[in-house]
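Worked example 2:
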Amino acid sequence: VLPLLPEYCRRYPRVQVELHLDDTVSDMIADGYDLGIRVGEMSDGTMVARSIAPLPFVACGSPAYLAEHGEPRMTADLAAHNCLRMRGRGAGGALNWRRGPARRPVSPPVSGNFVSNDMAALVMAAVNGQGLVLAPLPFVLPLFRSGALLPVLPESVAHGLYVFIHYPNRKNLPARVRTLVSFLLERFRDNPDLTSDAQTLLAPFVRESKPR
């Protein structure tokens, strides 16, 4: 979103954009938000939800970490690795690592010495060799391309989540909301990192290895 906002502001200079970054689920109407971007599934019938793209998650680690600790060859091998985990909302603790297709996902037992509620912090820890991270594929693709991270277990990419734009269901949608929704959908749906098949995107970074 951030790289796109300058272009939107140039196109619509009379619109003032205020961006709020928060991982909690807000009451958009009570808090005065025009629209939100979320990951997951929309279940609030009072909102209009526009799907941007599926969001696959892939496990990855730095070349230094994999050289020192080895590369997992099957999902069960994750139990022997330091897995950096996302903290759930409330007092739920760290989230499980969901793997595989949306209809038949598995949650292998994983543990590690670092939990955070911020994905960027987890990815940075992985880049610095602290462990493996399960991260959104579009988020880590630039790090695959730079060589800072490498994908592991690419055959069991986690599916089932989507990125949505959502906004209150209004008959007369303000022009500022209508123009931003159209602009973001146009840019997101033209982005091959969001719309291409996950295995196609991972193929240049997958290393051949013999299964154990």
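The longest helix spans residues 175-189. The beta strands are 36-40, 47-54, 57-61, 83-86, 115-116, 132-136, 150-152, 162-168.
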